[in-house]
Amino acid sequence: MKKALKYKRVLLKLSGEALMGSKNFGHDLATVKKICKQVVLVQKMGVEICLVVGGGNIFRGMSAAEAGMERSSADYMGMLATVMNALAIQNVLENMGAETRVLSAITMNEVCEPYIRRRAKRHMEHGRIVICAAGTGNPFFTTDTAAALRAVELECDALFKGTQVDGVYSSDPKKNKKARYYNNLSYKTVLEKDLKVMDGAAISLARENSLPIIVFSIHETGAFANVIKGNGRFTVIDGRS
């Protein structure tokens, strides 16, 4: 008897940096293809998927603001970078035979559809991979917060964050070999320890809506599908203490 899926609808959050591979800017096509293969594999398992992608591989609003640019303008530029990333992912996914829709929080009808919650849900119900672009459509909010917001709005069972490492650590494991690895964390602990997995607004929104966050390495082959099945190495952030 086939085991029932624990997660029927999920949101996958990707950073813009995840698309760079070994490059310092833009997209590494081989890396994007590797990530998209994982997304298609999970969809073929019967899971409805939406994605939120950052824009840091093209433009970082926070960095520009720190350099002197007006914050709102910098953030809007960052949102446009996420649309470019969404279109790149859409192109690769469709070349793999997947049906997709890009829905943007900033209206740009010639490029993609506007984000409408009911429309996004219907697309997923019809087997399309939905890529949510342009963050929340508002400055001063990160794409992490956008991911938590969309996951709650679209009634996802969990938010999966694909990162550069295989879970949450007490500090950067690439810089500190003694960094502690966490298998499970509460929302409260993440906020109190100021663990840099997602910003505080995203964690608080997840906590208020009992949305589990699963953190794993997006660069390990088949990791997304394994984590969906409960296998492999990952960190779960939820209401447990």
Q: Features of this protein?
A:
37% helix, two-stranded antiparallel sheet, 241 residues, 8 helices, nine-stranded mixed sheet, 11 strands, alpha/beta, Carbamate kinase
Structural class: alpha/beta
Q: What is the architecture at the second tier of CATH?
A: 3-Layer(aba) Sandwich
CATH topology: Carbamate kinase
Radius of gyration, in angstroms, nearest whole number: 17 Å
What general form does the structure show? globular
Distance between the termini: 34 Å
Low-confidence segments: none
Order of helices and strands: EHEHHEEHEHEEEEHHEHE
Give an overview of the whole structure.
This protein is of the alpha/beta class and 241 residues long. The chain has one domain (9-238): Carbamate kinase. 37% of the residues lie in helices and 19% in strands. The protein is built from eight helices and eleven strands. The protein has helices at residues 29-44, 61-66, 71-95, 117-125, 143-153, 187-192, 200-208, 223-228, and strands spanning 9-14, 48-53, 100-104, 113-114, 129-133, 158-163, 168-169, 181-182, 184-186, 213-217, 235-238. It has a nine-stranded mixed beta sheet, sandwiched between helices. Strands 7-8 form a two-stranded antiparallel ribbon. Helix 1 (29-44) links the parallel strand 1 (9-14) and strand 2 (48-53). Helix 1 (29-44) packs across helix 3 and helix 5 (143-153) runs parallel beside helix 7 (200-208). The longest helix has 25 residues, at 71-95. The protein is globular and about 50 Å long. The termini are far apart.
